[in-house]
Amino acid sequence: MSIPRVVLAAAALAIVGTPLLAQQFRDRKPIEMTVMFGAGSAADITARQLADGMAKHLGAPVVVVNRTGAGGALGYVHVAQQRPDGYSMVWNSNSISTSYHSGTLSLDFTAFDPVARVAIENPALAVEASAPWKTLKDLMNYAKANPNKVRVGNSGTGSHTHIASMALFSVGGAKVVPVPFGTGQAVVNLLGKRIETVVQLPQAIVPHAKSGQLRVLAVLGRARDPVFPDVPTAKEQGYDVALDMWRGIAVPKGTPKPMIAKLQEAIMKTVESPEFRAAGKNLGFTPAYLPAEAFGKVIAEDDQRLAETMKQMGLKRN
Known about the structure:
By secondary structure, the protein is of the alpha/beta class. The protein folds into 2 domains: 27-121 and 245-313, 3-Layer(aba) Sandwich (D-Maltodextrin-Binding Protein, domain 2); 124-219, D-Maltodextrin-Binding Protein, domain 2, CATH 3.40.190.10. The chain contains 11 helices and 11 strands. It has helices at residues 5-22, 42-58, 73-80, 95-101, 136-145, 160-171, 185-191, 202-210, 257-271, 274-283, 292-313; strands spanning 31-35, 62-66, 88-93, 112-121, 124-128, 151-154, 177-180, 197-200, 214-219, 245-252, 286-291. Helix 6 links the parallel strand 6 (151-154) and strand 7. The chain is globular, with a radius of gyration of 22 Å.
């Protein structure tokens, strides 16, 4: 009995499909990386470092496109709607969960396939150099004794820095006033003494800390930040808060695994390069590569933790 041609064709595709997919980036078609924040932001600068390295290893252009708005929701929706062919990526972060649980984004992390974690940025709390508080405990005690007198600058309502800061003062039993700012404005207002403290990602703080204008009192991640090696974490100081900001790459759900593997390999080579590590020291991020499967577990665990934190703060809508 003869075998139908359609069956033979399917068998042939199964045999050669994976190698063909793995070679697909060699056509030099541009690969688009969506960044949800503006040019010059911490997210954008790190993404461009990554894109340059990936392009070199893939042999194809990797183009960064800034799609801003709605706390990252517009960028996530755009990428989720693209063909799952490996040519559309999103520079994702914890914002996929904060945007979803705050109600600004209708889809969650399951709309994407993880490719690799790239870096970690630990939110840090800083005060103006002439402020009277030398330690986090000093500031916390003042805030507890003076309800709603401490204004805490963050990067926007529902942002990671907003959630991290409110979680910290909630654990410390202090009532403070969160003040949302646009990109770069929180530190400017702190230096102008219009607010008492900020919680920001390292890039916004590093140059001012180095110049002596700001004093960093705590890092709000799981471990000390290499950028501020002498600054203890909040947890070391008795406040059980550890909310790292991770960044990585994800693609639309259903992207072929060989394409993901190819992207993952290019990311690994880039993140482990001396150039990328040097950029991390200058810009305030820590290279922290994880492959797709491990990265997926981090995203799921972090989503659950953020959902619980946001619910306690009254910020959870979904």
